[in-house]
């Protein structure tokens, strides 16, 4: 299944290629599994709403991660498949919905 979401302008991105999204004021930086990045004039909140049918988790205020790209979660750190380590604030730990290694 190849679902795409509209991310801004005339741009659509296949959901299964999105590793994580990063807030940049009123813009969002979309990090793809290919290593490419797309800067769009759409807020992270708007993209989070568009991605709600899919498995994405808000790790912290400015980061939204695809659950499919999570390698492991240890204590307050989430490691993605590309070995990027993101810190999870303590107040978000109980809301973090990842349940695997």
From TrEMBL:
Residues 1-101 form the HTH LytTR-type domain. It comes from the Bacteria. This is LytR/AlgR family response regulator transcription factor. It comes from Lacihabitans lacunae. The lineage of its organism: Bacteria, Pseudomonadati, Bacteroidota, Cytophagia, Cytophagales.
């Amino acid at each position: 299944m190849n679902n795409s979401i509209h991310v801004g302008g005339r741009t659509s991105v296949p959901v299964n290629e999105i590793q994580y999204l990063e807030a940049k004021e009123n813009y969002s930086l979309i990090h793809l599994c290919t290593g490419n990045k797309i800067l769009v004039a759409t807020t992270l909140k708007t993209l989070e709403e568009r991605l709600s049918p899919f498995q994405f988790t808000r790790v912290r205020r400015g980061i939204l991660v695809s659950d499919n790209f999570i390698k492991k979660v240890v204590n307050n750190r989430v490691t993605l498949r590309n070995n990027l380590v993101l810190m999870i604030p303590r107040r978000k730990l109980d809301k973090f919905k990842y349940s695997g290694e």
